[in-house]
Amino acid sequence: MDKIEVLRKSDLCQELDDEQVKIVAQMCACEVYEPGTIICKQNTKLDQLYVIEEGLVGLILELGPLSERQVQAASDFETFGWSAMIAPYVSSGTVKALEKTKVLTFKREELRALCTTHPEIGCMISYAIARIVAARLHSAYVQLLGVTYQD
Asked: What is the pLDDT of residues 81-129, one digit of tens each?
């Protein structure tokens, strides 16, 4: 699948039109992670945002030196590493590839520059990140309370 098609389907670019997606697609690189690879480590500085093209990652909370729990997962067309975009840019959890995972990566400074070079795109990307964080937070609350939510 090409970058533009992945981004069109992603939670990061769902509000962008075709021309805007093409601009964003020029900013990303492709990376592949093998199962078991730690992509982001909790409490470390992040400088990249990730959109999964294909695969599965576990979002893990490290509770102590010998204790960790997978609290969520992300798969095709979902974004992770949002902490790279929000000061202090420190990862709130560890992200581990659960299967072979192909991602599109974005450097923080390039995405942030959209706010001045293409303000409408930068604004929509910022809103998308806020939606992603809100959805993850909601899922964490539901999981914490042991409540099942249905539409």
From this structure: 999 999 999 999 999 999 999 999 999 999 999 999 999 999 999 999 9
Residue 77 in this model has a pLDDT that exceeds 80: yes
Cα gap 29→131, rounded to integer Å: 23
Q: Which CATH number fits domain 3-145: 2.60.120.10, 3.40.1190.10, 3.30.540.10, 3.90.190.20?
A: 2.60.120.10
Residues in CB range of 53: below 8 A, 6 or more apart? 1, 6, 30, 76, 77, 102, 103, 104
pTM of the model: 0.92
Number of H helices, E strands in the chain: 4, 8
The phi and psi torsions of 143 (rounded to 5 degrees) equal -65, -45
Q: What is the C-alpha separation between 2 and 105, in angstroms, rounded?
A: 14
| DSSP string across 77-106 | T-EE-GGGGSTT-B-SSEEEESS-EEEEEE
Phi, psi of 45 (to 5 degrees): -70, 140
- 64 contact partners, CB below 8 Å, separation of at least 6: none
Which residues sit opposite 80 in a β-bridge?
Answer: 50
